[in-house]
Amino acid sequence: MSDFTKPLKCVIISPAGKLLDCSAVGVTFIAHDGSVGVLSNHMPMLCELGLGIMEVELVSTAPKTTPKKFALIDGGFALIHSNMINIIANDAVPGWDLKKEKIDILIESGKKKIKGVPETSEIYTHQTKKNALLEKLVAIAG
Predict the structure, then answer these.
(1) Residue 131 is part of which domain span?
(2) Where are the alpha helices (DSSP H) in 20-121?
(3) Phi, psi of 139, rounded to the nearest 5 degrees
């Protein structure tokens, strides 16, 4: 029987650099084809990431508490092997140390990107969803 309480190493890397390097009890993220949950001793896997909020359940020293970190991930790849999960994101916004002003700037920038773009285009749909997820990230991480 596997020990699912053993910590796994979680690393998030984006074009901005390494955003997270921690021990986690569990990780949930959005793959291109649905949600993926990872506990220790997960089978090796490589998958393409989608657009969504990633949840990292951190190892806690306090009894009956599981602190969490959240990040918005927009594309890239996840590599899971040997009790380690590496997220190589095309774009990532960390939810920790998050300032509402930064999110407002990101949302405004997203709105500028789709100004004049037809509402039926994939770019418009993607950016609209990303803006909604940025607002959700503020709500859950704030």
Answers:
(1) 100-141
(2) 100-113
(3) -65, -45
